[in-house]
Amino acid sequence: MLESKYIKDIITKAKKLNKTIVLPEGEDERVLEAAHICTEEKIAKIIILGNKEEIGKFFDKKGWSLDKIEIIAPETSEHLAEYAELLYNLRKEKGLSKEDADKLALNYNYFGTLMIKSGHADGMVSGANHSTADTVRPALQIIKSARKDRGVSSLFIMVCNGKPYYLSDCAINIAPTAKELADIALESAETVLKLGDKPRIAMLSYSTYGSGKGEGADKVREATKLAKEALLAPEYEGKPIELDGELQADAALDKVVAKKKAPESTVAGHANTLIFPNIEAGNIGCKLMQRLGNAELYGPMLQGLNAPINDLSRGCFAEDIVGLVALTVLQTQDK
Ligand SMILES: CC(C)(COP(=O)(O)OP(=O)(O)OC[C@H]1O[C@@H](n2cnc3c(N)ncnc32)[C@H](O)[C@@H]1OP(=O)(O)O)[C@@H](O)C(=O)NCCC(=O)NCCS
Questions:
Q1: CA-based, 20 to 30 A from 294: which of 2, 100, 174, 236?
Q2: How far is the CA of 137 from the centre of ligand 1 (A)?
Q3: H/E stretch holding 150
Q4: Residues 119 and 212 in one domain
Q5: Which of 140, 143, 180 has the most ligand 1 atoms within 8 A of CB, as the residue to mutate?
């Protein structure tokens, strides 16, 4: 892990930005090791949420320094009451009582998210011990979508044979409509640009340019049309974004197949950003690529939020956490 030049370059870029990332799962040794690596390598300033004594013992045992790492125990934090009040004010119209806000602010994922909302950290990486839903829910409720006209989606980065591929949405939106799918493609384009790459987006289907029939292909064709129209807006002028669809995965990735199935397309055969028609295709496709292709997988990163909060797989290694911290740092940049 962390072998690819791709992720090493991301780490180099992250080091220049000097951001603060909160890791709320201080009870997990992989998270503590990642905190140590991120600090030693100066990837980000790290705040760990957890028990100071326990974390101190672990660092002592390893012979690592805690000098540059801040540890916060939410239960005794000077900001707890302020965060609970903030949460209550943000959610009371949704039916949250003050009593429940006080309890919820103690939940480490909520506490970390409230730190970001309060400007006390720039981003958060969690999920080594939590489900995607538990990591993502506070972000959706507190940080919210950056744009009123678009929802939040997710993006995995798969480094396969040294080359990065960006996969979306494999983790959040279960059955996106054509409009939502177009928005997912546009958000993915923004994320890929922030990571310093040029998005060549394939809107994936079981059909290439009308070769297959059915509602699924119709939806992707419609999404492609909507995304292409949106890309004509002034906000995208001059941005190196290419998008095409609907394309089958082989036409998207293989130059020989692309010549036969979509010879006119500038994306077919060269795609690096793969937009799946729904979460089933995306999640299964992504895990198959990882397992059979022996690829490095990072994410899911959330995109479209007002500030970056990212999710880990529960089977992650410390190095995966380090990689995701670096990616999170890059997401803090303005579009
Ligand atoms: C993301 C997810 C967790 C949200 O579920 P949830 O908490 O039940 O969501 P709810 O529908 O109750 O919505 C909670 C809030 O998030 C908002 N929200 C939900 N999905 C959103 C999206 N895609 N974009 C922006 N906001 C969203 C809702 O509007 C709501 O906001 P509000 O409370 O301020 O009105 C859910 O879509 C999900 O479970 N997705 C699949 C996750 C998964 O299993 N992935 C596979 C493994 S990686």
A1: 174
A2: 6
A3: none
A4: no
A5: 140
